Amino acid sequence: MRVTLISKGAVAEIDTLGAQLVSYQDVVNTEYLWQGDPAYWKGQAPILFPIVGALRNERAVIGGKAYSMAQHGFARHREFTPVITRNEMAVFSLKADEATKRQYPFDFDLRVTYRLEDTRLTVEFLVTNLSDRPMPFVVGGHPAFRVPVSGEDRFENWVVEFEKEEVIDCPKFLPGSKLLDFSQTKRILDHERKLKLTHGLFYDDALICENTNSRQVKLYSILTGRGVEMEYGDFRYLGIWSAKNDAPFVALEPWTGCGTAQDEDDCFERKRGMKLLEPELSFKAAFTMNIL
């Protein structure tokens, strides 16, 4: 099932499967969201929960017991229940069931709210612990945007521009694995704001930016000025990613935590950025996209 949001400046469409954004268009029907061509990557904007990235051998030890969970968690493959659907707002809920508990032994309510105001689209996560013990989790977004938007443009004309000057050292991935090595880094910005895009930047996987000074970033063409901006104030990490096969998209990914690092063990609670939520409490985080 799909839910459509309409404002005076844009139209957004969300699929209840994964509560995933599947379209983000301006008033002249220009599509800014990646449309999921499987030749490159079939996803579009999956919700990442209760992990971001990969576990070592898909294994997590929680409360002394081993569980298996695939990359980016299970929320993106689950059907969410629409709780509220209005012209400019929709709320979707995912609750634990027997299938999720085989991977993640907690009762929870994950609510994803979309609000469309003119061309601004806010995505809010609300995680509530319905268990009787502290619940570890990570949550994040993964929206991918068309690069370029128009046929006369090229990928290499696009930049990622941070609001402030940054020194960003991204951890490398261990060869042949999805594990992060924070002892080996790649500097992508050195007291600069603009990262010029090339396909080669992503041949080793995502660029993971931690604790940036900026809380806002733009993805746009220096030729046309078209693109999107994102505010990610509630998130510790920003992932920047495109598929390795010279894909015509770039994802801007706000995360509260990141994938497993080679210097970590399999204990779920000890992973970088892990939130530990007490029973009956909730955690909220939001990011906003806007069409330039």
Summarize the structure.
InterPro entries: Aldose_1/G6P_1-epimerase (IPR008183), Gal_mutarotase_sf_dom (IPR011013), GH-type_carb-bd (IPR014718), LacX (IPR037481). Helices cover about 0% and strands about 45% of the residues.
Write a concise keyword list for the protein shown above.
Beta-galactosidase, Chain A, domain 5, mainly beta, LacX, 4-stranded antiparallel sheet, 1 helix, single chain, 47% strand, 9-stranded antiparallel sheet, carbohydrate binding, globular, Aldose 1-epimerase, GH-type_carb-bd, isomerase activity, 292 residues
Overview of the structural elements:
This protein has a single domain, classed as Distorted Sandwich (Beta-galactosidase, Chain A, domain 5), CATH 2.70.98.10. It is mainly beta and 292 residues long. The strands form five sheets. It has a nine-stranded antiparallel sheet with strand order 6-7-8-9-20-16-15-12-13, with no helix packed on it. A four-stranded antiparallel sheet has the order 11-18-17-14, with no helix packed on it. The protein has a three-stranded antiparallel sheet with strand order 1-2-3, with no helix packed on it. It has one helix and 20 strands. The protein is globular and about 55 Å long. Strand 12 and strand 13 form a beta hairpin. The model has no long low-confidence stretch (mean pLDDT 96). It has one helix at 98-101; strands at residues 2-6, 10-15, 20-26, 59-62, 65-68, 81-85, 89-95, 108-117, 120-129, 135-137, 144-146, 158-173, 180-196, 207-210, 216-221, 227-231, 237-241, 249-255, 275-277, 282-291. The protein starts with a strand and ends with a strand. This is Aldose 1-epimerase. One of its GO terms (biological process) is carbohydrate metabolic process. One of its GO terms (molecular function) is carbohydrate binding. InterPro entries: Aldose_1/G6P_1-epimerase (IPR008183), Gal_mutarotase_sf_dom (IPR011013), GH-type_carb-bd (IPR014718), LacX (IPR037481).
